[in-house]
Structure formats: C-alpha cells, structure tokens
C-alpha cells in the first residue's frame, strides 16, 4: 500500500503532461486495493508477481495477465520500483505484451527491453526519498507537477461506515483521537509490544482516547499490546474491523497517528494527519512525506540494513527508544494553540 501511495505524485505528473491520459495500475492485491481512493488511477489490474516479496501467483496467472495487457494495447509503461528491486522482470512482461515504450530504472543495461532507461545510481550517500525518486523518473520524460502531496480520497460512505463502527465501540465521532498502529509486515520494523503498551498508557493517563488499528493478520499483536497495558479496558480495539476507506476516514479525523513505519504512515501523510513514526533504520527513503511528524529511532552502527529481520538480533534501533519519548512526541504534535490546548510534558524517570 505504501509503495503505491508514494508513486501518486508521479502519477499526477503523468496526468498533467497529457490531461486526457488514462492510467492503469498493475499491482499486487494490496496495492490494487488503494486504487479506488486515488483519483489519478483510472483502472487497475491485480497480479501477484513472483519477483515481488510475499504472495505469488501460479504460472498460468502470469500468462493470463500477459494476455490482458496485450488485449488492452497500452501505449507505454512506467515501472516504479524501490532501488533494491530490479525492474527487468516487469519490463520483460510489458515488452512481451507489445507495449512500445517502457520507462524504468535499471542497474544493468537493458538494451532493447527498456526504451527509456534511467541508470540506477542508488544507494546514494544521502538517501533520496521514494516519492522524489519516482518524480525524478517521470521527469526524465518531461512529466512534472508542482503538486507533490500524496493522494488518497475518502468518501462520505467511508465516514458513515466509520461512524457506525465507532458507535458500536462507544466512541464519539468528533475526532481528535490518538491512533496506535502496532503492526508492520517486517519484524524489523515493529516497536516491541511491551514498550508500545507503556507509551499508550502515558497517553491514556493524560486523558487521550487511544484507538488501536491493524489488519486481520495483526489482531494477535494488537491483543498482546492491550494485554500489556495498565488500563486495557480504556483502549478501543479496531484491528481487523475497518475497510481501507474507513481506516482512511479514521486517520483523517485523528489528532495524531503513532505507528511503526508501515502503510498507515503514508495514509496519514496523504490525509494531512501528524505522525509519530517509530522508524527502524532499515529503509531511510520512506519517511513521512510533507506532513508534520516526529521520527523516533536509536542510532546504531548497523543502520540502513534493508533487512526484514534484525541481522544483529538486538533490534536496538527501535527497542532502545524509550516509551516516554513516544508519548512526548505525540503530545507535541497534538498541541494546538488555536484551540487553547496547552503543551503536555513528560519527564524521564
């Protein structure tokens, strides 16, 4: 989800270059789920490519997708990848589908496979944000935009559905809550549950309404955080209970999101909600984009490891972040002089 959201400014640039241009997104199921909320995307094709981490479709699905691409007779393809991914498998698929023009980064010379080749130069001494990377890619073919915010639009139905869920859990719909998202696909990007619970308790103790979010696969993790809380009855557990649109509506109306570096961080950036990002030093290109935020991490010699599991076994880049710092960062972002809300200060013990 986050990868698709971080391409939306580049998609906007492609649209601005030719206002009548139609864009079809080819992405995984999780990436494709974002498409209905992104106005720059006109259509979507979901495919679990074997060259992408996690799910993988059987070989016959590859051929079915290739046939679909051939049938639709696309004029061009832009392959968006993070720098550690090769664009060549996707380029071969597009080439085999007869797409005449293909734009992509590539470390290797793709020769005739990619018509518009941008040589891969990352990793750079100073990391380039993923959003900027994709804007730079389409900029090589003169597609540009001055509006570089991420794109995600919720609907009235999303907000109405959210209100029903909130009512069922005894929560008012006015907003301003603290959201806590404890999950992340990679274990290396998860703040320890015991520490998350301590930070949440500090926020609760100051009178904040704390709502926990997560997908179906993260329910057990959220339950663990709640079990470790000193006041579990005061927490609202919405893990696995919201559609993507309802999650967006929840984030849009929240006062702040406290999250590991995962998809909801980029949703918050798109929707303008401040973020406390518990940022494991794995992928420095994926910080919150153009939104008030605090990055919390402990600097370690093994920073920027790009690993899904901590190779050192200590997870110190996150586990050494003290819970009071998490709560304090949230309070700083919640402070609103316009509403006369005074600052809250937590001192380390």
Q: If you compute it from the alpha carbons, what radius of gyration comes out, rounded to the nearest whole angstrom?
A: 21 Å
The share of residues in helices is: 25-40%
Biggest sheet features:
6 strands, parallel
Share in β-strands: 5-15%
Give the full name of the CATH homologous superfamily of the largest domain.
Answer: Glycogen Phosphorylase B
Q: Could you say which overall geometry the principal axes of the C-alpha atoms support? A: globular
Structural class by sheet pairing and helices: alpha/beta
Helix segment count? 12
CATH architecture of the largest domain: 3-Layer(aba) Sandwich
Mean pLDDT: 91
CATH topology heading of the largest domain: Rossmann fold
Distance between the termini: 38 Å
Pfam families: Glyco_transf_9 (PF01075)
Protein name: Glycosyl transferase
Keywords: Glycosyltransferase, Transferase
InterPro entries: Glyco_trans_9, LPS_LOS_Heptosyltrfase
């Amino acid at each position: 989800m986050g990868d698709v959201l971080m391409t939306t400014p580049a998609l906007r640039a492609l649209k601005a270059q030719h206002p009548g241009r139609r864009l079809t997104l080819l992405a995984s199921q999780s990436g494709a789920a974002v498409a209905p909320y992104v106005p720059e995307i006109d259509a979507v094709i979901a495919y679990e490519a074997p060259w992408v981490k996690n799910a993988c479709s059987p070989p016959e699905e590859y051929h079915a997708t290739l046939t679909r691409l051939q049938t639709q007779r696309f004029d061009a393809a832009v392959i968006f990848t993070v720098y550690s991914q090769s664009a060549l498998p996707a380029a071969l698929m597009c080439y085999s589908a007869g797409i005449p023009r293909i734009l992509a980064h590539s470390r290797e010379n793709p020769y005739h496979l990619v018509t518009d080749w941008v040589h891969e130069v990352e990793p750079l001494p100073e990391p380039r944000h993923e959003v900027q990377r994709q804007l730079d890619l389409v900029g090589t073919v003169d597609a540009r935009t001055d509006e570089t915010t991420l794109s995600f639009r919720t609907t009235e139905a999303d907000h109405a559905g959210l209100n029903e869920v909130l009512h069922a859990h005894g929560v008012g719909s006015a907003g301003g809550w603290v959201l806590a998202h404890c999950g992340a696909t990679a274990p290396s990007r998860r703040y320890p549950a015991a520490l998350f619970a301590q930070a949440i308790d500090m926020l609760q103790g100051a009178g904040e309404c704390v709502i926990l979010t997560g997908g179906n696969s993260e329910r057990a993790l959220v339950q663990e955080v709640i079990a470790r809380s000193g006041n579990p009855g005061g927490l609202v557990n919405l893990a696995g209970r919201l559609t993507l649109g309802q999650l967006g509506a929840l984030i849009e109306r929240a006062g702040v999101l406290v999250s590991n570096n995962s998809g909801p961080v980029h949703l918050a950036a798109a929707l303008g909600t401040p973020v406390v990002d518990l940022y494991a030093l794995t992928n420095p290109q994926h910080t919150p984009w153009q939104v008030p935020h605090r990055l919390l991490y402990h600097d370690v010699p093994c920073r920027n490891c790009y690993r899904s599991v901590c190779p050192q076994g200590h997870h110190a880049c996150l586990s050494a972040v003290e819970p009071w710092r998490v709560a304090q960062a949230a309070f700083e972002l919640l402070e609103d002089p316009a509403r006369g809300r005074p600052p809250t200060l937590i001192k380390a013990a």
